[in-house]
Write a structure and sequence with these properties.
With 394 residues, the protein is an alpha/beta fold. It has 13 helices and eight strands.
Length: 394
């Protein structure tokens, strides 16, 4: 057995933890920060932006705000914000909001310190596979949703502006230096967003458990996250103010993010990145849900024992006795969970996906995120990918 354990991020976790931003000794050095938020204005309306600015000011840190990040962030905004960082002599970057905002903050921090275009460093699609000369500016992550786990990993997912290439990337310097995970910031997340982000975390855990690069700690964290999300996500969707459920989901998301640092997602994410690359209005978590039964049904045909582990973990969390044995019990429990969060009637066509796009989607998934196919438990051909898309569409 051989593996590497490396998560250099300091994580402050728990209800009320945001206030510790004003007193922590672990804030990156410097006197000016860029706070990156989404374009929706939610961080202003909820008062989170002003709170963070006030807490930073206790350290004598001035802040500027970049507020254009979209749910599927794009490279043009990364370039624009990075240029502002250089012009304003920003010392570190704070990502405040959902996973897309924190992902964007990582990419902005990288490009604030390096020359050229962001896509120079991508390893798929039209990326030039260059290595950045300098480390990213230090990053502080303050998530307000429980989904991506980006507060505990180095990964950042960006779409190339004007294209359908949506690619994940990261290096040692894009691990946040400090992450503050405060479930109180998640109490106001709407039902659909709660469901979509929760299932994103769920699939991070599932995929990391199945990946050929899994290791002992990622296995433990993945099973913990699957158990918690299966139990608590329906409760949080039903009653968003349930702080117990929100806290459990926040931890599950962070644990799944750790899994991504120690193991990896597999090609389920490659297929979804193609979908939301073609259709940016499609929430990432929704795309994962829509592909999931077809994708994991394909894997279940291969008699994967680890899928059975996941299915039995879910059944235990639900207090159910599976009707199916072996890996198909996971597919059965997955369907139950999707129904329990009210997403059983969603269709790909609801988001504008057309059947005639499927061959192009398959090509995109393999070309832009081909690395995840290499650590998927079974070799998948282009025809297999098309079949999964076809089954999901049907």
């Amino acid at each position: 057995m051989q593996f590497t354990f490396n998560i250099p991020t300091r994580i402050e976790f728990g209800p009320g933890k945001l206030e510790e931003l004003g007193t922590t000794e672990h804030l990156p050095e410097g006197k000016k920060a860029m706070i990156v938020i989404g374009e929706s204005g939610v961080m202003l309306k909820m008062g989170y932006l002003s709170r963070v600015q006030g807490l930073l000011s206790k350290h004598g840190v001035a802040s500027i705000v970049y507020d254009k990040i979209q749910p599927n962030p794009v490279s043009d905004h990364v370039a624009e914000a990075a240029a502002i960082c250089r012009e304003e002599a920003v010392d570190f970057v704070v990502g405040l909001g959902g996973g897309s905002t924190i992902d964007a903050s990582k990419s902005i921090a990288l490009m604030a310190a390096n020359e050229g275009e962001y896509w120079d460093y991508m390893h798929g699609g039209t990326g030039k596979v260059k290595t950045p000369e300098k480390a990213a500016l230090p990053i502080v992550a303050i998530p307000t949703t429980a989904g991506t786990g980006t507060e505990a990993d180095p990964w950042t997912v960006i779409t190339k502006s004007g294209s359908d290439e949506k690619i994940g990337w990261g290096n040692q310097s894009t691990f946040p230096k400090l992450s503050i995970v405060d479930p109180e910031l998640m109490l106001s997340v709407p039902q659909n967003q709660t469901a979509f982000t929760g299932m994103d975390a769920f699939f991070h855990a599932v995929e990391c458990y199945l990946a050929t690069v899994h290791q002992p700690t990622s296995d433990l964290l993945a099973l913990e996250a699957v158990h918690l999300i299966t139990h608590y996500l329906p409760l949080a969707v039903e009653e968003g103010k349930d702080i117990e459920a929100r806290t459990a989901l926040a931890w599950a998301s962070t644990a799944a993010g750790m899994c991504e640092s120690l193991s990896s997602c597999i090609s389920h994410h490659s297929l979804e990145h193609a979908l939301s690359g073609f259709h940016p209005e499609l929430p990432h978590g929704a795309g994962l849900i829509l592909l999931s039964k077809a994708y994991f049904g394909f894997l279940a045909e291969k008699d994967n024992d680890r899928l059975e582990d996941l299915g039995l973990t879910m059944a235990d969390s639900m207090g159910m006795e599976p009707q199916n044995e072996g890996p198909m019990c996971f597919v059965e429990m997955l369907g139950e969970l999707i129904d329990n969060i009210g997403m059983g009637d969603m269709k790909l066509s609801d988001f504008g996906v057309k059947r005639e796009e499927i061959p192009a989607l398959a090509e995109n998934a393999i070309a832009t995120m081909g690395g995840l196919f290499e650590i998927t438990p079974y070799e998948m051909t282009r025809e297999d990918v098309i079949r999964i898309y076809e089954d999901a569409y049907a």
